[in-house]
Design goal:
heterodimer, A: 438 residues, alpha+beta, Alpha-Beta Plaits, DNA polymerase, domain 1, Dna Ligase, domain 1, five-stranded mixed β-sheet, 15 strands, 38% helix, globular, B: 188 residues, Umud Fragment, subunit A, 2 domains, six-stranded antiparallel β-sheet, two-stranded antiparallel ribbon, 6 helices, 30% helix, rod-shaped
Chain lengths: 438, 188
Amino acid sequence: MFFGGWQHASEKAILHIDGDSFFANCEIAVNPALKGRPVVTGRERGIASAMSYEAKKAGVTRGMVIGEVLKRCPTAVVLPSDYETYSLFSRRMYAIVRRYTSEVEEYSIDECFADITGLRRPLKMTYVEIAKRIQWELSRELGITFSVGLAPNKVLAKVASRRLKPEPGGFTVIHQRDIRAHLATLPVEKIWGIGSQASALLGKHGVYTAGAFAAKDQHWVQQHLAKPYQEIWRELNGEFIYALNQEEAHTYQSISKTKTFSPASTSPDVVYAQLAKNIANACIKARRHSLLARRVAFFLKTQEFTYHGYDLTLTHSAATPEAILALLRPAFHQVFQARTRYRATGVVLMDLTPSDIQQPDLFGGMVQVERMQRIYAGVDKMAEKYGKHAVLPGSALPAMQMKNSGRDPAHLARREGMRFRGETARQRIGVPLLGEVR
Amino acid sequence: MSERAKHKISQFYRTHRRMPSYAELAKLLGYKSKNAAVKIARKLEDARILTRDSVGKLIPGKLFGDARVLGVVEAGFPSPAEEELVDTMSLDDYLIEHKEATYLLKVKGDSMIEAGIREGDMVLVERGRTARNNDIVIAEVDGGWTMKYFRKRGSEVWLEPANHTMKPIRPKEGLTIAAVVRAVIRKY
């Protein structure tokens, strides 16, 4: 019997499934008016968080400031991120893949690995047929395309799924016997897990392609490289090393708070106070959902409607304003420009994890974070009794005397502006909304 | 004597799903005083037909024969109502058959008014389902969603509104059916 490259029953068959331009394509899937147009998400942060195939072709890249996006691609449709909808699509993606195998690693909001080893007989399909079937069901039910790679391990599956990008909906198989051909011209830094330092080191030894790296002998690899890179080398040679991590530790939602204030201000204290208040409010919401944030993005919006922002990673996940403000203050002074009039600030908490599975660290930095967390348990109790802002970081105080004109409507995700009777700002039905129908 | 008492008590248990109090037991057996009921209860207790729980209340012992004793004491009576619960479904299950393929839409306008679908109604639709003749479908027309009856005769297909003041849509080029309507919800 011909198994399509998988000769032995014990040989692993790993899938990498990657949503094409995921956020942008979720927007298109719920709004047909966007089809074929360059769509960019991230308006509320002033930075492109995802872009459709058409926007990529026009030169828009991830992290580009929105002003620059519109310069390169004046027809771009720039939308505020709608994480509520993206995470609904994400959960559906995992659920569809799990129809075929329970061994699924939820790698990120738009990617997953799946182990389909040993399913040929029960499903009466080849591995290629199973992979294509999953890909087809995903696009049929979600209305967005996925790139799929099938290979003997995770590193190669990831190479395979990227093979045809940016072309959407690609499908690539890497068999044991043609690994070399797939790696021959691939730059070594494109390999999952090889960062700029490792690729610089390899470059010094004349290794620029994944193929050249894979062709090095074991002795050389053991002498020159640390263990993680030895493992990558073994996977590039077709061995199965990296098991699938099947814990569901992430939630892919984020928490954002944005407020426009009047009058617009040139004072750093006033603008900082506004930002601090948004952070305090975002932290209240995080604690209400028992979540801790690892990444924080903030932005300042000027009177001229330009955005300036910054993306920060915390050393320890936290949900208290103190932990975030300590890191954010220097960044704020880098972003804030004198003699510029600001009218809005915003903050997004990302990489949220449930607060009960926090990992203690080696160096005791957690102690401080935990102490603040305990203090804030008390703060939340007082807020229950005396109202929302009973206790507030001092730096946020000047903002309490100012008028806020609420959330900037331009930052409102489409779903938030379209409610059914009985839905509230906090609670909506957990089914994606396609919008209005005539 | 104790046979009759046992029978009466088990009858009482079957109808009330609990043990009788001493007063009730006295009445049940035709005694004038509670004291007599206490005595007969002790007798039944000695015979292990009745026992007591941790707070001293009477509970059935071998009241229903040996085989059932354990089950009765440990798990209580299986009530018919509990068995029925297994066969009910939530409104979610009833309305949503294929969870991953189901989406919401909000109705605008009155093109389906004669099918009883009004502005503001919530429509549950299933993506990727093959439309059959006379289904209500969601089609993509001019960059927007439209909800109409799907009609098919031979090779001819068209969309028909449920509103006699509106005309059917006959597509010149292909018709993109995005989803099929599975339920309409209206909350008052």
